[in-house]
Each structure stands twice: as C-alpha cells, then as structure tokens.
Design goal:
The protein has 240 residues and is α+β, with helices and mostly antiparallel strands. The radius of gyration is 21 Å and the shape is elongated. The chain folds into 2 domains: 3-169, no CATH class; 182-238, no CATH class. It is built from 10 helices and 5 strands, in the order H-H-E-E-H-H-H-E-E-E-H-H-H-H-H. Strand 4 (151-155) and strand 5 form a beta hairpin. Strands 1, 2, 3, 4 and 5 form a 5-stranded mixed β-sheet that branches. Helix 7 (185-193) runs antiparallel to helix 8, helix 7 packs antiparallel against helix 10 and helix 8 runs antiparallel to helix 9. This is Lipoprotein.
Length: 240
C-alpha cells in the first residue's frame, strides 16, 4: 500500500497548534517569542522540518551578514508526497544547502495530498500513483500550488522568515497527461460530484479522447453549473 493510501485512510491529525511554526501533538522543540503576530493561514510544516531549519539557522545564520531575512523556497513533490526538488533565493551557499536539504527531507502534510488526489486506489500493477490515478478512478488535480504557513525562527542573533511553496513535480504532471483515462459515465458522474477541479480534469479527458470537439465544448460550458446539471449532461452523453 502506498503512503498516499495510508495517509488518506489514516487521516489522524489529532491536533494542530495555532502557532506559526508547528503542527503535531508532541514536540520538544522550544521556540523563542516571535517578533510579529503569528500568521496561521495555510497548512503547517512538520515539526521535524522546523527542527532541521532551526539547526541551519543556529549553524549558519550568523554568516548571513544581517539581523533579519525573508527567504522563499519552491518545493516540487512527487505523487507520494516526497520532495524531489527544492529551489530558493538564498545566496549564502552553506545556509542554502542546509535549508534545502531540510526541505528535501520533508514529507508533505497529508491534507495537501488530499487536495491533489480525490480518493485512494489500491493496485499492484507497478504503475505510479499518478499513472494509475488516471488509469482508474482517482482524479489527480494538476497545477495546484499551495503555500505553507510562514515559519519564523530566531537564533544565532538573526530572525528569519521562511516562506515555502509546494507544487506537483513536472514529471508527475506529465504522467497524469499520459495516462488520462477514457471518459465514461461513471467517471463523468464522479467528476460532477467532485468539484470544479475534478470536472475540469474530466473535460480535458473528453477533449483528448472523444472524437467530437463539440462534446469538449459542452463539458467546459458546464463547469460552473450544479452537480445535478452536470449529472444530467453525463447521462445524455453516455446514456443511463
């Protein structure tokens, strides 16, 4: 069973703290007072990642040549929530290498995978989750970019604000496009119930797989309609 299935079936976030920098129930990490009011929008990075970033600040923060900084990181993840690439705007090589390594070791919070995958699908045919998602019943939502809640760490005489953006890796998106399944009634009804992003993904499949371009135009025109209106269109197109 993939980690995605375990995460989705588990869904056991027992508690989320209301601080900027942590989620989880048991953490022995002590954080100094923040210099500004906490910003709590968005999902939070794991405590382990916070601890690794804090270690980087303690080791290399004094070499940055200032007292306060804001650094941006872009993290691309695979279909199992693992970071496959990390880029940043940090100029100091030691601090950059340390913090990027910390983020490469981060496991994406499960609720973000739920943003990208509608529900689990267990298969043992060796396909990647992204591939089998669009060969079976899972719809993977592409193009979604999520920002984690900002992290503020004060150590070694400096205060650093980390902003971290997560997105699906390009190779996963390519796998999604390659293995997009043929549209049928059941997939159409699932998309109708799954919200706007799932419906748009289904319309892409209609545009690619069905011979009549009018069907794709009709599909796209139903994007903002109600679930029932979409379901009626599905039955008209594919039959009851």
């Amino acid at each position: 069973m993939s980690k995605v299935n375990v995460w989705i079936e588990g869904m056991f976030f027992a508690c989320l703290t209301m601080a900027v920098v942590a989620f989880g129930c048991a953490s022995n990490i002590e954080y100094p007072p923040l210099k500004q009011a906490p910003i709590v929008e968005g999902p939070h990075a794991p405590n382990k990642t916070i601890a690794r970033l804090r270690w980087c600040v303690e080791e290399y923060g004094g070499d940055l040549g200032g007292r306060s900084f804001e650094f941006d990181y872009d993290v691309k993840v695979d279909e199992e929530g693992r970071a496959v690439s990390v880029t940043s705007d940090v100029l100091n090589a030691d601090f950059d290498g340390c913090t990027r390594a910390a983020l490469r070791a981060m496991e994406v919070p499960p609720e973000l995978l739920l943003t990208w995958m509608s529900r689990p699908l267990a298969r043992g045919d060796g396909q990647t989750n992204a591939a089998r998602g669009l060969a079976g019943n899972v719809l993977v939502i592409v193009g979604v970019v999520v920002k984690l809640a900002p992290i503020i760490i004060e150590a070694a005489g400096v205060t650093i604000l980390f902003t971290i953006t997560l997105a699906i890796a390009d190779e996963v998106i390519e796998a999604i496009r390659k293995y997009r399944p043929n549209p049928n009634l059941n997939r159409c009804l699932d998309a109708a119930a799954g919200g706007e992003s799932m419906w748009k993904e289904f319309c892409r499949a209609v545009a690619e797989k069905l011979p009549d371009p009018y069907d794709a135009q009709e599909c796209w025109s139903k994007t903002s309609m109600s679930e029932q209106e979409k379901r009626n269109w599905c039955r008209n197109l594919f039959g009851n």
